[in-house]
Amino acid sequence: MKVSSLPITELKGRLSAEGLGLCIGPFNIKLTSSLAVVADGLEQLYGDFDLTKESDFTDFRISLAAPSLLRRWFRPQVNFSFDGFIPFKPLPQEQAFAMFEWGLNWCVANNAHQYLIIHAAVIERNGVTCILPGTPGSGKSTLCAGMVCKGWRLLSDEMTLISTSTGEIFPIPRPVSLKNQSIEIIQNYSSHAFMGETVMDTAKGTVSHMRPPNSSVDSSGQPGKAGLIIFPKYKEGEDANLTPLNRANALLKMAENSFNYSVLGLQGFEVLSALISNCDCYDFSYQSLDEAKEVLESLI
Amino acid sequence: MKPSESMLVTFLSSPNRAEAVTDSFKCELLLRQARSANLLSRVSKLCEEDELLLRLPERMQNHLQSAKCVANANHRSVRWEVKQILSVLAAKEIPVCLLKGAAYVVDEVDAGKGRVFSDVDILVPKESLEEVEILLVHNGWMCTNFDPYDQKYYRTWMHELPPLKNMKRGTALDVHHTIIPPTACLKPDIEKIWEKVDKVEGFEGLYILGSHDLILHSAVHLFHDGELENGLRDLSDLDLLMREFLVEEGFWENLLARAVELNLQRPLFYALRYTNGILKTPVPDDILNSSKMGSPGTVMVALMDALFLRALAPDHPSCDDRWTGLARWMLFIRSHWLRMPPLQLAQHLARKGYKRWTVRKNMT
Fold this sequence. Notes:
The structure holds two protein chains of two kinds.
Chain A: H1 8-16, E1 20-24, E2 27-32, H2 36-45, E3 60-65, H3 70-73, E4 77-82, E5 91-92, H4 96-111, E6 115-125, E7 128-133, H5 140-149, E8 153-156, E9 159-163, E10 169-170, E11 176-179, H6 181-189, E12 199-202, E13 205-210, H7 214-218, E14 226-234, E15 241-244, H8 247-256, H9 261-264, H10 266-277, E16 280-286, H11 289-298
Parallel strand pairs in A: 2-3, 7-14, 14-16
Antiparallel strand pairs in A: 1-2, 3-4, 4-5, 6-7, 6-8, 6-9, 9-10, 11-13, 12-13, 15-16
Helix pairs in contact in A: 1-2, 5-6, 8-10
Chain B: H1 7-13, H2 17-20, H3 24-36, H4 40-49, H5 58-89, E1 96-99, H6 100-106, E2 119-123, H7 129-138, E3 141-143, H8 148-157, E4 164-166, E5 172-176, H9 190-195, E6 198-199, E7 206-208, H10 211-225, H11 231-245, H12 251-261, H13 265-279, H14 285-290, H15 298-311, H16 324-339, H17 342-363
Parallel strand pairs in B: 1-7, 2-5
Antiparallel strand pairs in B: 1-2, 3-4, 4-5, 6-7
Helix pairs in contact in B: 4-5, 10-11, 10-13, 11-13, 15-16
């Protein structure tokens, strides 16, 4: 049963009472919140995700609630809590849904070391899985959103989960997080892109999330095998430029972008080098999504 | 004494752990309680030893594998850190005795199993304290708090230097010269403790407290000094230490005798009472009886039971009753009460209170 099969009143009811159970990639989440922003965000962006069953094991219990009665009304705020533990300072309440996304990233990055976790988007087409690491200024999410709007399958926008036992990439096709100008760029690029509410003045500027395609969510049970690693860089005023990158350098750059490389120690190195030995690696600078699409599709 | 009945306590105390984790619901509760008690890595290690992993739900296996990675990373970094500290102090032939988590991990005693912690604690001879501080500061460790009152508080009243931090690695180091604040009413003789330290194999100049003293120090820390934020984890340390060493000839009698020698009968009384009562540590009845020489009066014992049985439960909503918050708060007050004489405590609290008030005033 999918989230979209629940009427909004039922969705809100579950969220504010026993919690809403969601299957998000390899994780089962139970989310509790009586805030309308959270219910609306879920309805808009998580409609295609499955609900958990009563008897399912929950990995992360998350709640989003006002820190105090006062903060419900006076300059309303929201706290993220992970089974009673509050890892962050409260944020303005209108950012509650974005805080759910950021908080869930934190839960995964700190509690799922059965994966080597890279700060990277992953997309797939024609059976070729492509990792796009998110070095600062790379435009990783913009590129990812653009390709996904044109038929690539979304495995993940924010974190690449590489199984330490099989080397496979486990999809977690959550909404794609877009910032500032990227929001408009994607809206102009594809009429299919569906955006959630836009929130201004967050720590990351203006933020909006793009709904993941139905087909990507439906196939989130199928892991991918990486074949391409592309380090994107957005460069205005320059033609697209694809340069092969040797594997040793690619490994270093991937390790730098990992959330838990040092936690895994030797195992991290082994998993990463096995992954990279099966991949073609490139540095890629681009200025337009159309060009980028052409180049990426020439590689598959 | 009413024993706590959390899933985590059942798991830790059960001779047959497999029974404690028969279904998915129990596993999930164990996961949640262990996570909040900072004991998930230990649960992971114990499941591995009992060859339970493959019998657990796959999601639980994943969480336990993840927690194992965290402990392994923590232990790698602690071993490295200890080597760095030794390289600075051993050159000057200053003996370094590891305390608490770092001691358990580096000397590979059972209490190091899945023990996750952030600070390295060391004990050095009091006469070397000044030299140790200078050497450490010259080699990359820095004091992080320069508030004049806090500096004076640590240097005149406490059993340790103000906390140090390695400027490159960000790791925390506490340098102790004795095991309990000199202002506290318990006054174990630190010379006698140094007489019984053991060498840590493979590390020149590195020591660990003798087995009885490891237990007594852990008991002092938990019942007389700690703030109990990791209460159940520390109790589990005590349980593992005792279970490991009880095979030694005359272990229990020697432990009691050592407590008398160091004047630590009270903390040992609590340690035996609550490890046995909560985690079913196999303390012989006659030893439990003899340890009552360190017991406070009957009323006090009843009060301490009411407080410790709550505060030593996992810090998780599923384990709290309506008095848990109050119990933790009262034990926090008690730890300060035991730390210094009443007049000094009053001055300390007044000073801290005034400082907090002025800071707040300056912020608004």
